[in-house]
Amino acid sequence: MEKITLHDKSFRICIPNEQIEESIRKVAEQINADYKDVECPLFLAVLNGSFMFAASLLKHINFECEISFVRLSSYCGTSSTGEVKQILGFNKSLEGRSVIVVEDIVDSGETMVEMNKTLLSANVKDARICTLLFKPDAYKKDLKIDYVAMNIPNDFIVGFGLDYDELGRQYKDIYVLDE
Ligand code: IMP
Ligand code: MG
User: How far is the CA of 69 from the centre of ligand 2 (A)?
Assistant: First the structure.
């Protein structure tokens, strides 16, 4: 589908699935190389947005690992609210673990800064961030984003897990607001 309508807005295709999957394969290769000697890392995927990315990414991971899902959100409509809610869903101790956070998109960076604080206070051994999408022009923080599958302009996008007020997550391609 070239165009989709979600609520009151229309979107046009901007990143086809093949390109998304190829960028995920490349980022997985970097992670495979960096973690080959690390004891059972834990992937912590941030719901809801990262469910599709986590599924694609983990299929390429070739070392012993665990995956778990957490929930946390700061977004309402098409612009960041600037508020980050608490992180829910840690069901086991993170102490001493090497954690790789799996995120759909890093925008202002608020969410990842909050996540990083929470992980450090849970006494993880090491925490890194892996995001499908990064908006360099919107990023306002100093925290290092370790793995980026794709850099994108500061536009609002949906699909491949990302939503516009909860719609559009199921599409295999990524769409941008058609203005
Ligand atoms: P941040 O805290 O400003 O970095 O925002 C990160 C969160 O905002 C992501 O996990 C997404 O859920 C959401 N988000 C940021 N940009 C977009 C977008 O373009 N489309 C859909 N959701 C977005
Ligand atoms: Mg998210």
Answer: 12
